[in-house]
Write a structure and sequence with these properties.
Blueprint: H1 13-23, H2 28-42, E1 48-52, E2 55-59, E3 63-69, E4 74-77, H3 81-86, H4 88-91, H5 93-98, E5 101-103
Antiparallel strand pairs: 1-2, 2-3, 3-4, 4-5
Length: 112
């Protein structure tokens, strides 16, 4: 049957994230591709990918997690402070204050 789009010129949501990643320069692209792959492997069934505020986001009933590349770092945006609170000792005070986890694009991607 194929993918049905609401509008004829609409790009499928997953393809939008593919397009976002294709525009991310090295060395950030492989890092974000790994973040995406790890996230895909752990999200619940029924989760979709979309762009939210211009950055890739995994959504279920609401946003689960977003990720993005910036000039000198990458960021992972959890859906609320509870995730950051749970890892406060490992992430440090900056992550908690900024409501995101920043890491250098050349950093080793966590496996969990």
């Amino acid at each position: 049957m194929g993918l049905r789009l609401r509008r004829p010129n609409q790009i499928p949501r997953c393809a939008r994230n593919d397009n976002y990643l294709a525009r991310v320069p090295e060395p950030a692209r492989p890092t974000l591709e790994k973040v995406r792959a790890v996230t895909r492997s752990i999200v619940p069934l029924g989760t979709s990918e979309a762009l939210s505020y211009g950055i890739p986001t995994f959504r279920n009933e609401r946003g689960l997690v977003s990720y993005a590349a910036f000039k000198d770092h990458c960021s992972l945006f959890p859906p609320g402070s509870s995730v950051l609170d749970a890892f406060a000792d490992e992430l440090g005070p900056t992550a908690r204050r900024m409501a995101r986890f920043n890491f250098h694009s050349t950093s080793r991607c966590p496996q969990h």
